[in-house]
């Protein structure tokens, strides 16, 4: 029987959904995927409960801050934050664009390098011994501590910020992708090899499909880490970006505008999560 007639069958969803390893350990994608279940809304009651909690929290904060006459420069009420968001949005929007450019460029670079390194250390174990110490160093080193050094080397502008985002996102993608590549049923690999499948075929037909949930988790975490790093780099480097707006508004004690930018960043982070969650539900959930 030809390999081309056999190996592609391993990429079908049903061949993975109930897989178990030789030692009896369950390695089904239900356990690997962060997307097989999630914060999906199932009933109108849940929607009502979420809205009710939000109204109580926001309304309670509004009432308490106004009742105790807390100054705006200490903590503005939610209504003042929303008003500031609408009035300042034309000014905030260009800086949002700058931040998205930094995030997009750095994340793309970091994700590509992370996936390549994950595949490399999975296929060649000796490479992990060489690469792992440097990845550990990147993970444990605050990226913001490197931003001034990057600015000295590359100057002010996009370059140092994109590099910082790539350094923050890349290790997150690599670690999760490598974990996914390794969590494979050895029986399937042995079966594929018995039909003459090459290492490359095994990687693309078995390892990559089973690693997809973990890869998406790594991409999601990497994107969020990249966003935090981009904002931090903007606060350190100044000039432009949402981080620069935070520094500017806080220095001028314009707290409603400050929290309006925080609200924009929170919404952006939620959108990143929702994006990867929906991608995972569409392409990496085999239990639907």
Automatic annotation (TrEMBL):
One of its GO terms (biological process) is transmembrane transport. One of its GO terms (cellular component) is plasma membrane. It is found in: Cell membrane. Residues 96-280 form the ABC transmembrane type-1 domain. It is a multi-pass membrane protein. Pfam families: BPD_transp_1. Keywords: Cell membrane, Membrane, Transmembrane, Transmembrane helix, Transport. The chain crosses the membrane at residues 47-68, 80-101, 107-127, 134-156, 162-181, 211-237, 257-279. Belongs to the binding-protein-dependent transport system permease family. This is ABC transporter permease. It comes from Labrys okinawensis. The lineage of its organism: Bacteria, Pseudomonadati, Pseudomonadota, Alphaproteobacteria, Hyphomicrobiales.
């Amino acid at each position: 029987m030809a390999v081309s007639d056999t190996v592609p069958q391993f990429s079908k969803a049903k061949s993975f959904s109930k897989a178990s390893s030789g030692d009896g350990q369950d390695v089904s994608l239900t356990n690997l995927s962060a997307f097989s279940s999630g914060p999906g809304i199932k009933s109108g009651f849940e929607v009502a409960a979420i809205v009710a909690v939000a109204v109580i929290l926001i309304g309670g904060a509004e009432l308490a801050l106004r009742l105790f006459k807390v100054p705006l420069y200490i903590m503005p009420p939610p209504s003042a934050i929303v008003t500031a968001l609408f009035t300042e949005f034309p000014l905030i929007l260009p800086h949002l664009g700058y931040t998205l450019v930094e995030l997009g460029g750095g994340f793309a670079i970091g994700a590509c390098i992370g996936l390549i390194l994950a595949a490399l250390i999975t296929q060649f174990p000796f490479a992990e011994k060489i690469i792992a110490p440097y990845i550990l160093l990147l993970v444990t080193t605050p990226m913001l501590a490197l931003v001034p050094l990057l600015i000295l080397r590359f100057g002010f502008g996009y370059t140092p910020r994109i590099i910082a985002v790539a350094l923050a996102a890349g290790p997150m993608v690599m670690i999760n992708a490598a974990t996914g590549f390794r969590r494979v049923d050895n029986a399937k690999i042995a079966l594929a090899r018995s039909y003459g499948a090459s290492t490359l075929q095994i990687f693309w037909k078995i390892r990559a499909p089973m690693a997809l949930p973990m890869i998406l988790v790594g991409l999601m975490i990497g994107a969020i880490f990249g966003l935090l790093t981009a904002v931090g780099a903007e606060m350190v480097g100044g000039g432009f970006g949402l981080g620069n707006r935070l520094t500017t508004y806080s220095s001028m004690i314009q707290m409603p505008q400050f929290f309006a930018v925080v609200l924009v960043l929170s919404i952006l982070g939620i959108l990143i999560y929702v994006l990867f969650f929906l991608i995972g539900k569409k392409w990496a959930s085999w239990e639907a």
